[in-house]
Amino acid sequence: MDHDPKVPTYQTSDPTSFAHKSARERWPAIVTGAIDDVHRTVSCIPDSDKDALAEGKAITSALATLKYELQHNRVLGPIADDGFPDVELYNDELAARGPPTWHNVEWLFSECYLYRRIATLFSTATTKPWRDYDPFYRQKMKTFRSSRPAVLELCARYRQIVEQIRASSRDAPVGADVTDPTEIEEAEKLLFVEMAEICLWGNATDLSLLTSLSYEEIQKLQGSNARKESEKNILVNDFGAAFAVLTRALKAKREIRRVDIVLDNAGFELFVDLILAGYLLATGLATEVVLHPKDIPWFVSDVVPKDFSALLSAMADPRAFYEDSPDADADADDEPDNDKPAPLAEEEVANVQFLFDHWSHLHGEGKLILRPNRFWTHAGSFWRLPAVAPELMEDLKESELVVFKGDLNYRKLTGDAAWPATTPFTEAIGPLGPGSGLRVLALRTCKADVVVGLPEGKDEEIRAMEGGGGDFGARKWAWSGKWAVVQFSDGKA
Ligand code: F6P
Ligand code: MG
Where is this region: Disordered (predicted)? Predict the structure, then answer.
């Protein structure tokens, strides 16, 4: 807490903040989803496995208790010791805060606490399948399956680009029939921006928010037309600065040109993160990409290491993944299209497998690296990073560019504080800003109140639009993932 910005933070007690709605409506729905998932797994355990059955039932009842507590505004109780050092950090902070009640507590702290508490139910379990079980895994895979049209479209595009890169020299660059170096660079920049935009908008479809969207609506959000239309919704766009940094490192022929991606969601968003990573490695804009997943199930859809292997397995055998849906029966009620999925065309299968081969090769060669760290599931802001996780901070300094994906990472970068919207991004990220030794690029679709770095008057202008929240004294426009910011800070300058 001592390291956090000295600016008031968003609270679940504030009716104008998305925190209020999250605490009262979304969290109970999310815990209910976890209960349903555990229940479904319990129903598959044979009667003879009495210990696992008993443990599954105990977990269901602990989740129901948690839901009761948060719906009835009870005090946040201490987290049970599961042997990980962050328990003490959580519990000390809980005590220092009161302890608080669910409807009157800092949003960022309490939301992290919620997922940490859920994780403890599985980290303290002793039987299979509960030990380290992920109650959101099923949901993550189901949503990834429903992204099929966008995945197939992007696989075709990615394959085309990577094959062109392989075939071309620097004099005949990808997507351009030009030899003038300025034009070449411009063409390369366009392609970089296309890949980075794909990566940005992949964040619009996360599970903790999209409980109310239909299968068709999710698909619409992911196609290339949607992306073009959404360009005008990128309120601050620093893609150019990020590209400049990466090209500079390439031209300087720096031997190791590392890019880090602090991941957000699994499934489709992880897929598009890998598109960007694979593209950077194919062009030489990076020689290694380090991916930072979470260590425990987090904010429903966040990537844990198992999601990475599950994604690669799905892509290794796309027919099995897309054509034989194991959830077909269970999903028949909630998906409009409950017929057997259409078979994939030969070319579609080949395209998906092309990506699988490319990515698994990069992973095998040590160019695409997965590096979890417990810090990412701590409660507080990233303002705490240099003091609380100095070795992680030092590691990130080795990178040319650290990309922070998604809304929660943005909330953590800025301390989830009620900054004036015109506050410079470099100021709002405090110790990760100027002089930090880190280059930060936030790719964020807005799904919470905090936003910084906007031009004068922009917040007011969007608030005044229909549904913008002005009439309610809120920044409602920033809650739905429709608007985005791409913000850069050069802490190495
Ligand atoms: O409660 C809403 C919320 O926590 C957002 O603030 C938020 O960050 C989101 O869920 C998850 O978004 P993302 O996956 O982009 O971090
Ligand atoms: Mg997330």
Answer: 1-21
Q: Please report, as a single letter, which amino acid is at residue 340.
A: K
Q: What is the mean pLDDT of residues 142-152?
A: 89
Same CATH fold, 149-490 and 18-135?
A: no
Instruction: Provide Rg for the chain, Cα atoms.
Output: 22
Is the CB–ligand 1 distance for residue 206 below 6 Å?
Answer: yes
Query: Is the minimum distance from the CB of 463 to ligand 1 under 6 angstroms?
Result: no
Ligand 2 center from residue 173 Cα (angstroms)? 35
pLDDT tens-digit readout, 436-479: 999 999 999 999 999 999 999 999 999 999 889 988 889 999 99
What's the mean per-residue pLDDT of the chain?
Answer: 91
Residue in the structure block whose two tokens are 């380290």: 132
Residue 157 CA to residue 293 CA, distance in Å, equals 26
Which ligand has the nearest atom to the CA of 478? 1
Least distant ligand from the CA of 114: 1
Kindly report the number of other CB atoms within 10 A of residue 447's CB atom: 23
Contact 176, 187 (CB under 8 A): yes
Determine if ligand 1 sits within 6 Å of the CB of residue 428: no
Helix 346-364 and helix 268-283, axial crossing angle in degrees, nearest 10: 70
pLDDT, one tens digit per residue, over 381-406 is 999 999 999 999 999 999 999 999 99
Our measurement of the distance from residue 469's CA atom to the centroid of its chain's CA atoms, rounded to an integer in Å, reads 25
Contact between residue 279 and residue 158 where contact means Cβ atoms under 8 Å apart: yes
Class of the domain covering 149-490:
alpha beta
Residue 207 contacts residue 140 (beta carbons within 8 Å):
yes
The ranges assigned to domains in the chain are: 18-135, 149-490
1 to 22, 77, 219, 233: CA distances (angstroms): 22, 19, 40, 34
Closest ligand by atom to 447 CA:
1
Closest to 388 (Cα-Cα) out of 376, 397, 400, 399: 376
Is the minimum distance from the CB of 12 to ligand 1 under 6 angstroms? no
Q: Tens digit of pLDDT for each residue in 161-184? A: 899 888 875 445 455 555 677 777
281 touches 287 (CB < 8 A): yes
pLDDT in tens, 282-336: 999 999 999 999 999 999 999 999 999 999 999 999 999 998 766 544 444 455 5
User: What ligand 1 atom has the least distance to the C-alpha of 27?
Assistant: 1
Q: Which CATH architecture has domain 18-135?
A: Up-down Bundle (1.20)
Alpha-carbon span 172 to 165, nearest angstrom: 9
Q: How far apart are CA 317 and CA 359, in angstroms?
A: 14
Q: Is the pLDDT of residue 211 over 60?
A: no
